[in-house]
Write a structure and sequence with these properties.
Elements: E1 2-3, H1 17-26, H2 31-43, H3 52-56, H4 63-83, H5 88-96, E2 103-107, E3 116-120, H6 126-140, E4 145-150, H7 157-170, E5 173-178, H8 183-190, E6 195-200, H9 209-214, E7 218-225, E8 228-236, H10 239-246, E9 249-257, E10 260-265, E11 273-277
Parallel strand pairs: 1-8, 2-10, 3-6, 3-9, 4-5, 4-6, 7-11
Antiparallel strand pairs: 7-8, 9-10
Helix pairs in contact: 1-4, 2-4, 6-7
Amino acid sequence: MNAIAPARAFDLTADRFDSLVANTFAASKASRHVRDRLIAQVDGGRLDHMLLRARSGIASLPDTVNRKAALNTIDFAFEPLVMQGMSTDQAIRYLGAVENTLQVREARGLDCFGPLWVDTIHHVCVFSVLFQLAAFLGKNRRFTQVVLLHQGQRPEPRLRIVSNLLRQVHGVALVLLQLQEHWFPRLARLTTPGTVIFYLTDMPPEAFPQAAKKQRGRSRLLLTHGPGVALEVETISGSQSFARRLGATRIVLDYPSTNSIRIRPVGADEATMSLCPIEDWVFWPLLVGTAQRETFAHQDLALR
């Protein structure tokens, strides 16, 4: 397992694959042609220095995984452009289709009383999973309000779409609470026994320096490939303290494999350790391969 020191874990320069993808889509209104062109560049080898194999330092990473990571980044940027043109029915079907790709392997801790705190991560399907879980909790557990804590680095049309659908179709209110000054007192005022709070625990400290200064807590994210761990990264998380202060039951939602979701309770004082396939993690382009040694020793995590 390769543990990345936080001081050198992430690259914030503009010469990254996700930045290239975002800028390329922004420069043209023909988004479908842009997507095809980006995929052609990936397949042609022109962007190899930006792809997962180079970024992670794992030379033995298979071509299929290297390409899948690139496609995930392209489609994560392409998704909001497509969704904005969908009707309500189309958007519901699209978001619900995630159940054909990701199966819930384990679901414990959802039958609690009082507010529920959900630690999760930036998986490529994060918006679909958010929608499906919020809809389930509204229908089956009588939760009426979802609060999503976010950094608000840029406008996110998917959140507006998800918010509208949850309200119109499921009667669940989605509150977007930006992690700015005095956000926690506002959260405390919002929180009721019918509140679910989604908190993304995999924010790279270097990408969010202000949050890193204010939040001393850390969590671990194990980026997996197959049955083992490829890389381990340390990320920002203050969920232990925040959930305890709210009196909320705390659960973790993560992704043990490329086709599964796991939901499980964690103790109030337990540090979060999440799993995600390396190619499905939204932030993989921030990884720095040159600062790492390839030790790709598969570690059996007993995921099955």
